[in-house]
Amino acid sequence: MKQSIRLQLSALVLILAGLVCCKTPDPAPDNVVQRQDTLTITRVRAIDSTPVPASIQITDAGSEGIFKLNVADQSSADNTGIILVTKNGYRYKRDFQGAANLLWFGVKESDADIGPALETAISATGNIFIPDGKYTQLTPVYLASNLTLRANAGKVLITLPKSYVSLSSPVDPSIQLKNILVDGLTWNVTSTESSLRGPIYIDGPTVSDLTIQNCTSTDGAAKDSTNWLTLKIQAGKTATNIVVKNNTIQARRMACEIFNHDNYNIYAGKNITVSGNTFYNCHFGLSLSGPLSQLTVDNNYIKNCSLYGIEIAGAAQNVTITNNRFEGTFDKFLEGSNDGDGNGSIVGGMIVTGNSTVGLCQGGMQFYNGGAMQFSKNNFQMTGMLELLHSTSGGTFTENTIVSSSNKAIICDNTPNNTFSGNTISNKPNSENQATFMSYGSKATNNVLTKNKLIQGSGGKPYDAVLGGSCLASLNYDEAGNPIP
C-alpha cells in the first residue's frame, strides 16, 4: 500500500473517532428503567444512584405533573417549575402544553415576595399563567421578549408594599423587548418609598409589539405620585405597535405615559393605540408626548384628572381621538400642546370626533398643535372653553354641540383659517358673556362661522373679532331660529 493511501486512511479513522467522541452517549441500558415513579420534588432531587426512572409523577401540591427524563440535557438549571435536577446530574423536564403555572415554581400566596420566583419563571418559559389569589411582591421583575403573562382578570391581586415597580425593562438597554402580552393582572401599590415609577416601568430598550390589557391598578395608599404605565423611548431607540386596552387604572400622577423626548425631530414612537380604558383620579389620565406618529385614542372613559384627561404633546402626527367620554373635574379634559417649542413638524391635523362629556365637566379643552383639525360630532358640556392656539389653523369644526359656562365658548387665539359649520355653540349659562365665539389677535384672520346655532349668555355678543382678528359670519341663527346679522 502506498504511503499516501495509508495517511488518508489514518486521517479518516481519526475523523470518525472524533465524531464518535462528540456524540452525546446513549444512556447505558442499566442506567434507565422504563417506568414512571411517583415522587415529591425533594425526593427527585435526592436521587443519587441508578437506574433512574424514565418519567416521574410529581405529587407536591400546586406542582403536580409528569416530568420526563432528558438524558441529552447536561446543563439546564433546576428551576422547580419545568426542570428538576437529581443529585447525580440527571435532568427531568415537565411534559406540558400551553402556559406554565406560576405555582409550579414554588409560589404560594403566603410568600413574602413572589418577585424571585416570577423572575425564574420568565427566564424558564415564555408563557406563564398566574392562578387566582392575593400575592405580595417586593422586588421588580424584568420583562423579556416573546412573553405572555396572563391571569384571570380581577382574580389576581399583587400588592406592592415596598417597590413601586412590578414589571420592568431589562437593566441593559441594549436588550430589545418584543412580542409581549400582559393580560389580566391587578396591582395595589402601598409603598412608602420615594419614587415616580409605577407597576409597569419601561425605560431604555427598543420596544415592539407590546400589549397590556384587562389590568387593574390603584395607588391611592402609596406615598409618592406615581404612574401606572411608563414607556420612555430613549435616544436611538424606538417603540412600535404598542396597545394599551381595556384597563381600569387609578394613579396619583399618570395612568399611562408614553413619551419620546430624547429623539429630537425623529418620530421614534409609531402605531400606538390606547383604547377601552378607564382612567380615574389621576393628575393626567393619558399623556402621549414628543415626536410620535399614528396615535389612536379611542373609547376611553376618563374621570376626575386634576390636570389633563387626554394630553397629546410635542408635535405628534396622525392623531385620532374618538369616542372618549369625560366626567368630573379637570383643568383641561382634552389637551393638545407642545413641549416648549415643540419637536419636528406637524403633518395634517388631529381627528377629534364622537367624544363627549358625561353631565357637566369642570374644565375645558385646549389645542396648541392641532394642525388642520377635523373636529366633528363631539358633544361637550363644560365650565371652560374650547381654545385654539398657535399651530391649530385651517381646521374644520362641524356638527358639534359645545355648551360652556365660560364668558367665551370658543376662542381662536391667533389661529387663522378655521371653519365652523353646523354646530350648536352656547355659553348661555354664563351671566357675563363676552362673546360666544371670538377671533382674538392679529393672526386670527379668516375664521369662518356659518350655519351655526349660537346661543349667547347675558350681554356680550354671539360672535366677535378683536385686536386684529377677523370673523367671516353668515347664515347663523339664535336659539329661537332667528337669523343673526
Automatic annotation (TrEMBL):
Gene3D superfamilies: Single-stranded right-handed beta-helix, Pectin lyase-like
Signal sequence extent: 1-22
Domain Right handed beta helix, chain residue ranges per copy: 209-380
Keywords: Signal
Ranges in coiled-coil conformation: none
Name under which the protein is recorded: Right handed beta helix domain-containing protein
Organism expressing this protein natively: Spirosoma arboris
